[in-house]
Amino acid sequence: MKCEYDYIPALSIKEGNITRLFFGFNAVTTTGNGEEHTKYVGHNVDLKGDVTYDSVVSAIIKEQYSDDKKDAIFANRELVRNNPAHEKADEYTAEYTAFQDWRAYAKDLATQIINA
Description:
The chain has helices at residues 53-64, 67-82, 89-115, and strands spanning 2-5, 12-15, 18-32, 35-48. The chain is of the alpha+beta class. It has one domain (2-115). It has a 4-stranded antiparallel beta sheet. Strand 2 and strand 3 (18-32) form a beta hairpin. Helix 1 (53-64) runs antiparallel to helix 3 (89-115) and helix 2 packs across helix 3 (89-115). The longest helix has 27 residues, at 89-115.
């Protein structure tokens, strides 16, 4: 889920049988009452039980892509493979590429979390 803080939290925090993952933070500066305030907006995912590389990768991917969205991306990718001239080929290819980029990001982040 999206979350925001006045600071960037640690990558993971263990609370009982839940491990909270924090990632993808960007600084957002706002002005109010003549003062600038910076907050950090990112993602938070909670994992229950054992934390493994695979469970972390899966949780990060699911934070961005529901199963229905993944199914649509893969179906659209197949459509483009079978019909490269499809009117939405560029859009569908971009969606697939964005998914693969997020997947690579999830793997890199999982490695950092597991090795921390």
